[in-house]
Amino acid sequence: EAAQAYFSDVTFLFLGGILLAIAIETWNLHERIALGILLLIGSGTTTLFLGFMMITAFLSMWVSNTASAAMMLPIGQAVLDELSVGSAENEAGDQNTSESGTPPSEESTPLDQSAAEPSNDLTASTASSATLASVKEKALTSEEVKLRKGMALAVAYGAGCGGVATLTGTPTNLVLASLLGTLFNKDDIISFGLWISIGFPSACLLLFFAWLWLTLVFDFQGSLPVRLWRRVCRSRHQHYDVNQHERAARVKAFICQRFRSLGPIRFADVVIIIVFLTFVLLLFFRKPGFVSGWEDAFPKNGDGNSYVSDATSAILVTVVLFFIPSTWPFPKSRFDARDTKRSRILEWDTVHEKMPWGVILLLGAGLCMAKGAVDSGLSCWFGEHLSSLGDLDVNLVVFIFVFFITFFTEIASNTATATIFLPIFAQLAVSTLHVNPLRIMIPCAMACSLAYMLPASTPANAIAFSYGHLKVVDMVKIGFVMNLIGIVLVMFLTNTLFSVVFKFDKYPVWADQLLSGDSCGLANTSTSTNTTRLV
């Protein structure tokens, strides 16, 4: 029984998602996507931060939060370094102008200089490197420190918000899906398509309010939220950065240069994009809910469950990457004419090195522990000691649990928190509150991802903190408000979107499987007077 937990469908779904993420990271496709989206969004300070948050959130939907933050923070740091180089060159130019007494209009322009002197790329490159070195050596201004703090938090918050959108985005979502199958002995209570119908809108709302909060905290000059806030507060300190357009143009030029340095798209990039789109479509349309899915074409077992699952799609499309060559296999192709080494898109040595085996073992161990807590009666014992909560309103109980989980996960592992408390909440919902277990388990599982306060809360926070510009007090003050924003949004979505999608007002038949399998001696006939049995 213990070994079965390590070979669950959710574990292989996570494995397939990680394989696809390794392929994207190995061929540097994430940087090509990120730079392309940044060129489309814009290069102003506010839109730049929004762009980085959106890209990090998109990557975090399919890649782990840790990997997405580690991918995007170096790109953001490079963009901010380029801004510092521009500021240093402007200061140097102003200083030279003041010393010479010659206005800039009377000096020769770079075009005139290039016409009078032969170009020297080596000299220009050396000068640029020297300027960048001087920027790194000199003390950063308060404005530059503020931008670096905002960038670090923007990427960390984007990774956390994006992980909520899909089942594979964060292990806590997978723990919820796997525990539902283990505790209630029913497959596909939450499928990939069903979760994304609630997870994606939730991630978008979290991302928007996180961006709005960071914009107000760091007071980006000229941004629309700050101008509206000042107008509401009738502030007299309405000023606008006159160098904003110049900085935006410099950032755009740097992003264009870095995008061009990636070269033309390769054959491996095209294959990974096709496999990724196939992966998403198979997961979404296997059992979409509003139409018949492709799983209906396959036979079902004696229990009425299908032989195919989301794990089938994940493993099917990612294993193909081990067989497809990284270069165009036919001669005289326009693809990868510069590549001479033939290899596969995914190599086992690369997968073995980058695969988070510890997380996979943690998922299996969590299922074992949850099953043991139910079979031994431990979750029932906790449920009995929390029976006094049955006199409270269900919304108040959900709020108490969401609030507790949100701040508890700041000092504990998100996955461990979900593994420990979700079986207890399931038992409490069925035996004490007599409500749909999803009404408590889904918001609490989502609350496990609302860890924004401490560097040790999530690996993404730790990576952002490691860049050296953030202090713990900065993360605590800003993250505390983000936690409160997350709690309010989760409670709002629980009583609106979640309730409509999962029919919280109906008591499902499969919920009685938890009572029939435990040692509490509770009757299976107990239901609430304000719930309707779903048949």
Question: What's the topology here?
Answer:
Blueprint: H1 2-5, H2 9-26, H3 29-41, H4 45-62, H5 65-100, H6 110-116, H7 121-137, H8 142-163, H9 171-184, H10 192-218, H11 224-233, H12 244-261, H13 267-286, H14 310-319, H15 348-354, H16 357-376, H17 378-385, H18 394-408, H19 414-433, H20 438-447, H21 459-466, H22 472-494, H23 497-502, E1 506-508, H24 512-516, E2 532-534
Parallel strand pairs: 1-2
Helix pairs in contact: 2-9, 2-14, 3-4, 3-12, 4-5, 4-8, 4-10, 5-7, 5-8, 5-12, 5-21, 8-10, 8-21, 9-16, 9-19, 9-20, 10-13, 10-22, 13-14, 16-19, 17-19, 18-20, 18-22, 19-20, 20-22
Verbal overview:
With 535 residues, the protein is mainly alpha-helical. The chain contains 24 helices and 2 strands. The longest helix is centred in the N-terminal third of the chain and has 36 residues, at 65-100. It is globular, with a radius of gyration of 27 Å. The model is unreliable at 90-100, 102-137, 234-242 and 521-535 (pLDDT under 50).
Short note summarizing the structure:
The chain is mainly α and 535 residues long. The chain is 67% helix and 1% strand.
State the low-pLDDT regions, or none.
90-100, 102-137, 234-242, 521-535
Spell out the helices and strands N to C: HHHHHHHHHHHHHHHHHHHHHHHEHE
Biggest sheet, spatial arrangement of strands:
1-2
Question: Which structural class is indicated by helix and strand composition?
Answer: mainly alpha
Radius of gyration: 27 Å
Instruction: Give the distance, in angstroms, between the N- and C-terminal Cα atoms.
Output: 30 Å
Largest sheet properties: 2 strands, parallel
Approximately how much helix is present in the residues?
55-70%
What count of helical segments does DSSP give?
Answer: 24
Number of strands: 2
Choose one word for the global shape.
globular
Residue share in β-strands? under 5%
The averaged pLDDT comes out at: 76
